[in-house]
Amino acid sequence: MDVRRRQPKPPRPAAGDPRRHQKSLRLPAPGVDRHEPSPSSPKASDALPLPLYLTNAVFFTLFFSVAYYLLHRWRDKIRSSVPLHVVTFPEIAAIVSLIASFIYLLGFFGIGFVQSFISRASHDAWDVLDDEVAVGGDGFLPEDDGPPCAAIACAPPKLAEREPIDSALSSAEDEEVVKSVTDGKIPSYSLESMLGDCKRATSIRREALQRMTGRSLKGLPLEGFDYESILGQCCEMPVGYVQIPVGIAGPLLLDGLEYSVPMATTEGCLVASTNRGCKAIYASGGATSVLLKDGMTRAPVVRFGSAKRAAELKFFLEDPDNFETLAMVFNRSSRFARLQSIKCSIAGKNLYMRFTCGTGDAMGMNMVSKGVQNVLDFLQSDFPDMDIIGISGNFCSDKKPAAVNWIEGRGKSVVCEAIIKEEVVKKVLKTSVHSLVELNMLKNLTGSAVAGSLGGFNAHASNIVSAIFIATGQDPAQNVESSHCITMMEAVNEGKDLHMSVTMPSIEVGTVGGGTQLASQSACLNLLSVRGASRESPGANARRLATIVAGAVLAGELSLMSAISAGQLVKSHMKYNRSSRDVTKVGS
């Protein structure tokens, strides 16, 4: 028999004792979780005849055993055509045991889950949990109006120190909206539609975020941006904007025209290096470019009941006699969309269809997706057993390194070349033709092959591509495939001059739509004379932008390879890519 000794009550404080006026809330002993019952207090599990783990094991075993028994009994009744409602005494006992064990397990494990679910539901406006616990800002527990504990072990858990927050609210009405957002009454994403003022919605969301996280957004600008221009187009739930400096490399002499190339970057030395490459190309007579292909792709995946049926659709799509009909259906999606080809690949019962189409001056992902949807709807009548798994099956392939883009191309395929004169190599680039050719062979070609590179047979093409993409409002994530590049160098004119080229099969750019319509990005496109759609020749501006990207990559590759060849890489980065200034003091 378990006999428990009653704990003696603590002596009542005297009338003059300050502890008499304190609340009854007590802090746990050192090393004891405040949410766990103290060792001296009776537990709920003490009322059980067995230890808690044995009780749980008994009810688990009982639940699954009777469930298994009842399922077998009901299966036998079905086989012997006995009505299920006719039950025997053992079956009644089993049903009662099943219900009892279920109630116990639900009460033991389910209540905590439901309570945690309810506690999380109040924060669904931001989908984050408030990191505050019930401890006052002065270190006291909420119900403790006495002095803090003298012992360090009795101190409450220390929270991350909250930063001072500068409020940008202009009225009491805004204050009420902020409170509603932080309380979960108003979803943060609905502020624009509710208030009808994008700038005000951004300010309120920003203030609510600062209060909920306790972290300041002081260094993130709010003023000086047109938030109406990004609504429903570029960014959801904005709280400010990030400043990225824009430098100019050039003039780049390409195809007889001069371009000042805008590059948005925070990497020191990048613009200076590309600018030196532009100088070397200009001094050698300029570079030339050729557009090899222009077509955006989308590849849905569909499934059939057999590989034979998948092959039948493949043959149908690749039959030249059916292309005109399919193109007419596809082209209804836009006046600029023009279907060029369909290539298919089979994996078992699954068929991947890679549609390629021209998209005018737009990058074209949305355009080609709408055209593909039209074709899929059209095919459903002749192939009713076709199960459309997804509009994109990664055979496109978008925002991922893929051999299909490296081989077949995606977007604009461009090759750009220039012959750099011997004296320019020596005076401007501070190296020699022989050294550059040897370095390119061992680094860009052999080294990349040793690394198993896919489309990365270059020195730093993605550096230039990313900087121009950000400056001109392109999709930065498409830098992945747009930076596919192979750099070639060869001594010509009896070994005196250097022939250099970059071949880039999948440059994905546009001059309309997306971020190209923002003021800053539109200004950079205007600097290159490619802003908006070309009225004379649809698609001409986007194609020219692709050739400018390739020309800038040519300049960047030339300069970096020369710096490595001459041993100047570390020295130049230490000069232009290092700063001794205290950034925190500069920001303040």
Automatic annotation (TrEMBL):
<dbReference type="InterPro" id="IPR023282">
    <property type="entry name" value="HMG_CoA_Rdtase_N"/>
</dbReference>
<feature type="region of interest" description="Disordered">
    <location>
        <begin position="1"/>
        <end position="44"/>
    </location>
</feature>
<dbReference type="GO" id="GO:0005789">
    <property type="term" value="C:endoplasmic reticulum membrane"/>
</dbReference>
<feature type="transmembrane region" description="Helical">
    <location>
        <begin position="92"/>
        <end position="114"/>
    </location>
</feature>
<feature type="transmembrane region" description="Helical">
    <location>
        <begin position="50"/>
        <end position="71"/>
    </location>
</feature>
<comment type="similarity">
    <text>Belongs to the HMG-CoA reductase family.</text>
</comment>
<keyword id="KW-0325">Glycoprotein</keyword>
<dbReference type="InterPro" id="IPR009023">
    <property type="entry name" value="HMG_CoA_Rdtase_NAD(P)-bd_sf"/>
</dbReference>
<dbReference type="Pfam" id="PF00368">
    <property type="entry name" value="HMG-CoA_red"/>
</dbReference>
<dbReference type="InterPro" id="IPR009029">
    <property type="entry name" value="HMG_CoA_Rdtase_sub-bd_dom_sf"/>
</dbReference>
<dbReference type="InterPro" id="IPR023076">
    <property type="entry name" value="HMG_CoA_Rdtase_CS"/>
</dbReference>
<comment type="pathway">
    <text>Metabolic intermediate biosynthesis; (R)-mevalonate biosynthesis; (R)-mevalonate from acetyl-CoA: step 3/3.</text>
</comment>
<dbReference type="GO" id="GO:0015936">
    <property type="term" value="P:coenzyme A metabolic process"/>
</dbReference>
<keyword id="KW-0521">NADP</keyword>
<dbReference type="GO" id="GO:0004420">
    <property type="term" value="F:hydroxymethylglutaryl-CoA reductase (NADPH) activity"/>
</dbReference>
<dbReference type="GO" id="GO:0008299">
    <property type="term" value="P:isoprenoid biosynthetic process"/>
</dbReference>
<keyword id="KW-0256">Endoplasmic reticulum</keyword>
<keyword id="KW-0472">Membrane</keyword>
<keyword id="KW-0414">Isoprene biosynthesis</keyword>
<dbReference type="InterPro" id="IPR023074">
    <property type="entry name" value="HMG_CoA_Rdtase_cat_sf"/>
</dbReference>
<protein>
    <recommendedName>
        <fullName>3-hydroxy-3-methylglutaryl coenzyme A reductase</fullName>
        <ecNumber>1.1.1.34</ecNumber>
    </recommendedName>
</protein>
<dbReference type="GO" id="GO:0005778">
    <property type="term" value="C:peroxisomal membrane"/>
</dbReference>
<dbReference type="InterPro" id="IPR004554">
    <property type="entry name" value="HMG_CoA_Rdtase_eu_arc"/>
</dbReference>
<keyword id="KW-0560">Oxidoreductase</keyword>
<keyword id="KW-1133">Transmembrane helix</keyword>
<keyword id="KW-0812">Transmembrane</keyword>
<dbReference type="InterPro" id="IPR002202">
    <property type="entry name" value="HMG_CoA_Rdtase"/>
</dbReference>
<dbReference type="GO" id="GO:0016126">
    <property type="term" value="P:sterol biosynthetic process"/>
</dbReference>
